[in-house]
Amino acid sequence: MSLPIVAIVGRPNVGKSSLLNCVAKRRISIVEPTPGVTRDRVSADVVHDGVTFELVDTGGIGIVDSDKLEAQVETQIRFALDLADVVIFLVDVRAGVTPLDREIAGLLRKLQKSVVLAANKADVTSLEAAAVEFFQLGFGEPIAISALEHINTTTLLDEVVRRIPEEKRQPAPASEMKLAIVGRRNAGKSTLINAIVGEERVIVSEVPGTTRDSVDVRVARKGKSFVVIDTAGMRKRARVQDSIDFYGQSRTMASISRADVVVLLLDATDDIGEVDKKIGATVRLEAKPCVIGVNKWDLAGHVTPEEFQPYVRDHLRGLDFVPIVHLSALKKSRVQALVDAAFKVHRQANERVTTGKLNRVIEAAERVRRPQARRGVLPKLFYATQTDVNPPKMLLFVNDPALFTKEYERYLENVFRRDLPFSSVPVKIVFRKRPKVILGEPR
User: What is this structure's pTM?
Assistant: First the structure.
């Protein structure tokens, strides 16, 4: 059974994104005074009073969008309302009742949803009293809150949880992995998400940069549950035009950090550029399991995957072990192959090997190639153990970590991928000086 859904709706700039961030206790939605910043359904799983639900932020009803996406934003809002078990109707106590508030109230009455009315921006006592004006909207007594100051938000959540049907109250389902879709603008990330989910879950447009938030989408596909993270398209720092762009790019980098697996989406119809390389370098630096998706392959002409892959390897250095999947998100071609590849690297990243097997592999590697002496001192490897997963982390006890070069570290990493079940994932290696054992010392 899916989580109960609570949708936040209201006209533009009443504080919907601030409320989501407040309740989720982290910055998920971009908060800007510019109306229409939130376009997609942005969501977070929330636990309150032992009840877990999905809280969904939506675009402002009645926005005028600079990229002419009003109809698509409205479609996303209707999706959220159709799926919602409870609706938080958010209004601005400072602005009072507006004609658009009344229009939204009429829409909600027709849908016959359970509606909790919240009057936001009530950060002083006099404004709390002013909230009574919203009685006229017909949803009972409004709850005066301040999302920015965290005032009365617990009271609001108490009421929301009370409205969730008893049969839908359950613990959050465990997601097998968090999959971040990253890439430069207009590579087809949102189209890919919609192909994975099987519905128009995020807004797709020919306008580059449509997605501004990082959007988490819970997916059940082929019997497997996972979360897909759609991200804002990256572009060169010199072209970051405003704070919305800046926050969107910051969220993309944060999404890479919290993902279990990253899909780096390339555009087969365009050259690999500096932005693609920068994202690849970040994925490598974060040691994230990764799949390279070459999208729009149906438009690539007569080139074959075997001919194209060396080009990708040559331009995305340090990701030579990462699987490459050629696909068309628009035509839903090889989308499942991409998902399967993501699950494969996720399994590999969570593998553990015994200490005995790891040390046998290291001994064999040393017989083939021993580390070279430095400053007249021979580097010595004593023993190793795996200390972590996702990514696999190997702790190697040595006589002096400074004697081991980056080149030898890369050699061992390649050996581990070849001889251990880590063929398609990064492996972290840490050299540590072996502690001295003093005979007779109590243990």
Answer: 0.61
